[in-house]
TrEMBL record:
Aldehyde dehydrogenase domain residues: 2-441
SUPFAM superfamilies linked: ALDH-like
Protein name: Aldehyde dehydrogenase
One family name in Pfam for this protein: Aldedh
PANTHER family associated with the record: ALDEHYDE DEHYDROGENASE-RELATED
An example molecular function term from Gene Ontology annotations: oxidoreductase activity, acting on the aldehyde or oxo group of donors, NAD or NADP as acceptor
Keyword Oxidoreductase on entry: yes
Family, similarity comment: Belongs to the aldehyde dehydrogenase family.
InterPro entries reported for this sequence: Ald_DH/histidinol_DH, Ald_DH_C, Ald_DH_N, Aldehyde_DH_dom
Superkingdom of origin organism: Bacteria
Amino acid sequence: MDAAVRAARAAYDGWSRTAPRERAAVLDRVADLLAEHTPDLVPLVQAETGATLRVTSSLQVPPAIDRFRRYARGALEPDTVPLAPLPMAATPLAPGGLIGAAAVRRPLGVVACITSYNFPLTNLAGKVAPALAMGNTVVAKPAPQDPLCCLELGPLLKEAGLPDGAFNVVTGSRAAAGEALVAHPGVDMVSFTGSTAVGKKIAESAGRSMKRTLMELGGKGAAIVLGDADERAIASAVGAVGSTFSFHSGQICTAPTRVLVHRSLYEKVIAALTHYAESLKIGDPVDNSTIVGPLISAAQRDRVEAYVSGARDQGARIVVGGERPAHKPGFYVAPTLIADADPAMTVAREELFGPVVVALPFDDEDEAVRIADATPYGLYDYVFSADPGRAWTLAARLRSGNVGINTAQRHPETPFGGFKESGVGRDGGSFGLHAYSELQSLVWVS
């Protein structure tokens, strides 16, 4: 650990002083190399994560390429904002006159990038690319469940022309490895994606030396289906909520794992989601026809099953799923829809990270907002309505860092992050450059 941080520190002075066009060229070349190595990376990522072939081919490797390409352009974005000159009166410190100023973004130094297991390469690229674009150096620590694809990134960065020491990878399955990296005095910033529980420990450790932090933590997304939702809006809602079943088996922090439905449409949406869940093929992730693959580990499968069992014991209705798929060796959980839960139930408040959706009815918008906000999280919510203006107005009331209106689609240039215990800071697009930089003010006599 110490050697990796020292290497990053030694490389910082040189890399931070390279011209933006040189950094851009390196990142562009990394994107090219990732594209060339995609045929090898896809099966590796799939073997490590258990993601289906569809998910791996479209959302595990290609977004990593896109992120390096995006921040190759980002390295060329202006880093200086001129401020209007102002006439200033004399003070005991200096004579008066017309004073000019500018705000300049500067690199932070050594960035520790600690990633999650669900999208190991994509998540790492989303941290490393903007960090390097701004002139920082990196020590990466991938999740212990799937480090191999992250280790493969190192040689590609070197081949692309990144100086020795500017990117380093450390691994370890024990908490002590991450703790040592976060606490190291040579680290200037910690960028973490993972659970809120671990994020709190990182914040506590980083706070002792006032390290900068960027943390994308847990979520308990609510999809709110308003009473005016027409067939199109309902179909959009079912598709979005259904992605919790079908997209990487619900192992995604932005998933709408709760569906809040106006009572007049509640049973209709329940029926549509039931049909959706029952139509999904569960199977071997290397089979291109498989939609639902396994979870990352036996421990995670057992954790999700415990939540479902607890909901059943508390009186919730298991509409579909709730049991392991028959004759499926591996860490599978069947797509599960839980209805008639109380908002105070554990299953309705805590992040599960599995293919489980909780349905809750509401009678008016005030109640919908109360239920949506009745968790410690605030990462991503969704509103579905026949009236986009009404949905927009409701979105403003939600304590959530992101709100999708009649869609679960993402926009890559928006600031991404959460309210409450869903994280600290924002990345994405140009906001990612801001996240991995520090502002310096320059003041002079015009």
